[in-house]
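Review form for a predicted model. The reviewer records the input and the model, then writes brief findings.
Reviewer: anonymous (R2)
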Amino acid sequence: MTKTATRSLVLLMVTLAAASACDKVPLTAPVASTISVSASSTALQSGGSTQVSAVVVREAGTLVQNGTLVFFSATGGQVDPPQATTHDGVAQTTFTAGSATGTATVTAISGAAAPGDPGNTVEITIG
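Model under review:
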């Protein structure tokens, strides 16, 4: 095999590998996006549950693309599912309160919209 043929083959293999890897990378919020998290109810009894929504908006003020992956985490209870995709900019999960009374938090992150950004967390009172 000639040097040119070998280089062409290597280039083809790298291109195919890169193309197939692109299909496996999840779609997440772009740089300068924001997430606003809200709950249907911000006061629950132990073991109670509420729907939590995360609205993901790009810097330009438009909603992110459908299928953008959002990860949810919680203290004082659990979320199910722990990750969801957006539809019309909104991803949803259900928070179920644990047995301890106090304040629980549900946080949502996606790509560049990370914890610590205003609005990424909602507090829920358990008791």
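Findings: The two ends are 74 Å apart (CA to CA).
Further findings: DSSP finds one helix and nine strands in the chain.
Recommendation: see findings above.
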